[in-house]
From TrEMBL:
<feature type="domain" description="Myosin motor">
    <location>
        <begin position="2"/>
        <end position="672"/>
    </location>
</feature>
<dbReference type="GO" id="GO:0051015">
    <property type="term" value="F:actin filament binding"/>
</dbReference>
<dbReference type="GO" id="GO:0005524">
    <property type="term" value="F:ATP binding"/>
</dbReference>
<keyword id="KW-0547">Nucleotide-binding</keyword>
<dbReference type="GO" id="GO:0005886">
    <property type="term" value="C:plasma membrane"/>
</dbReference>
<dbReference type="InterPro" id="IPR027417">
    <property type="entry name" value="P-loop_NTPase"/>
</dbReference>
<dbReference type="InterPro" id="IPR036961">
    <property type="entry name" value="Kinesin_motor_dom_sf"/>
</dbReference>
<dbReference type="InterPro" id="IPR036072">
    <property type="entry name" value="MYSc_Myo1"/>
</dbReference>
<keyword id="KW-0505">Motor protein</keyword>
<dbReference type="GO" id="GO:0000146">
    <property type="term" value="F:microfilament motor activity"/>
</dbReference>
<dbReference type="GO" id="GO:0005902">
    <property type="term" value="C:microvillus"/>
</dbReference>
<dbReference type="GO" id="GO:0005737">
    <property type="term" value="C:cytoplasm"/>
</dbReference>
<dbReference type="GO" id="GO:0016459">
    <property type="term" value="C:myosin complex"/>
</dbReference>
<keyword id="KW-0518">Myosin</keyword>
<comment type="similarity">
    <text>Belongs to the TRAFAC class myosin-kinesin ATPase superfamily. Myosin family.</text>
</comment>
<protein>
    <submittedName>
        <fullName>Unconventional myosin-Ih</fullName>
    </submittedName>
</protein>
<feature type="binding site">
    <location>
        <begin position="95"/>
        <end position="102"/>
    </location>
    <ligand>
        <name>ATP</name>
    </ligand>
</feature>
Amino acid sequence: VGVQDFVLLDSHTSEKAFMNNLRKRYQENLIYTYIGTLLVSVNPYKELDIYTVTQMRLYRGVNFFELPPHLYAIADNAYRVMCSEYNNHFILISGESGAGKTEASKKILQYYAVTCPTTQQLQVVRDRLLLSNPVLEAFGNAKTLRNDNSSRFGKYMDIQFDFKGAPVGGHILSYLIEKSRVVHQNHGERNFHIFYQLLEGGEKDFLCWLGLERNPQKYSYLIQGRCAKVFSINDKNDWKIVRKAFSIIDFTEKDIEHLFGIVASVLHLGNIQFEEDSNGHAIIRDGTQIKWISKLLGAHLSILQEALTHRKIEARSEEVLSPLNVDLAFYARDAVAKAIYGRTFTWLVNKINGSLANKDSTRKTVIGLLDIYGFEVLDTNSFEQFCINYCNEKLQQLLIEMTLKAEQEEYEQEGIEWEPIPYFNNKIICDLVEQKHKGIISILDEECLRPGEATDLSFLEKLEEKVGDHPHFVTYALPLCILAQRENPSQDGMLGRELFLLEHPLAGGEVTYCAVGECGTAWKSPGIWGQGSGGDNLNYKISVATQFKSSLMSLIEILMSKEPSYIRCIKPNDNKEPGKFDDFLIQHQVKYLGLMEHLRVRRAGFAYRRKYELFLQRYKSLCPATWPYWHGPAAEGVERLIKHIGYKPEEYKLGRTKIFIRFPKTLFATED
């Protein structure tokens, strides 16, 4: 149905032809299609019988294009090349929320678990690699409007293999957990899964020890989206899976107690209410929740109360405590909850890494799996969305650069003349965001650090001044939104005690605005601060945007040192409905995933290339001289074969080890 490889489309520059081919295949449950070696995957929103152990064995060790397009072909190709050439690989899985990235990542892990060589000792490593997924999903995934199991963080996992090709260890890097979800969810969305799993599945005595009740409606942080119960999610069953996973990943009962003590303390924090005393200062009249937090965190009650109702002002050698009003106390409470959850997630990832670590010092090869949040343009785009979209721009830049480089290298190795390819280079977009001293992130940092009052409006003015004439930058100023509380919480530095290094907004009164790069990058920045490399030294601050930029640069370096494979995931409709193909929605994704751009690069020279041996094996029956056996060099056999078939000189080129065919119709005629 249709063509299995978009490269073989006759009208490869036509978006309409691209969409028609994708639609035809999707309607026949053919959810996978290639663009060369890149895999396009459309979420079927239903179970398909294509992930069985039989299917896994079918794809094992088979040449890439011999079988229909599949995730397993991508996974197997990366594995075989790694084993034969002893080099490192990565598989980049991208697409918007709900497109099936997390499922694709899990399917690839399962494929390696079933098809790689193993021993009883290695089975433990394999189980830990597989079971790290439900734990990270519980703490890092949530129900959103677009996806009932949406990853709210980016994940890069290295699977380490020994010289025999057996998986012997792993390492996980996580990026930008969406901490804001802990304290606020949009209508129709939930907090992170783990809160609901704990309440629904936790043993009665355990909940009692944590000071929790089973009903999620009792907790302020769990009910803002008004959908604590979701038909498609079985929290009780998921709790059992997570508990089992903890025991296999090597968590002790003490670890689990401490971990869920922290999770419970976040729920108690959300239920703390502040009242105003006669001086207009915030006080906590009902001490029930804070007593539970004190017990669960092992923090002194008076220190906790002080941290939530006062801020510390440092002036030279003096420290002065200044009381917070009620609005700022609620903000401090939420900031503490976000900080606790964010650091707990980091600890969890490190703990899992400890259990996956391979202590053997012999050289390993790795296959990295990058499951990264997708590019999205929402009605209101958060600061996190800006970081996410910037990340996608960088990865798109990497994809085009590495594809072009691979094409050029293959042509040179084969002795075929390289023809320069025109394409849109999004470096200009990336520079707009990240350039030192001139980019948006640097301007944001400067504005946050400068003396005097920094507001969203002053930041917007600075952007207009420095990058206003950039061809890919435009701003839209909306009406001034004066908050009820005009006091600027940032003027005296960090909220809370030394116990917490917290985030705080730029200003009380703010202009709501949106800055949009021409490729769709969009954000609304609340000016968030994170922890610097100086540990808990409050005088040393690095903005979250700069931290994210640095970690993204490190990730790009990791990827540049490996051989790439790509999976682009597409969401067919917004209703999670099987069989429904929403043309407008899919066309939008095809555009920003850069699929037409990738196809143009892949098709610029020759649509099809194959090693002489494989081409001869496939088509030798078409020529009496090569059938049934050809006894000379394969290259000469192919030359004899195509002359007999009648290929014209402009239709092909012969390289050192491969035949290159320019037009799809030439190949189709040969097939016919």
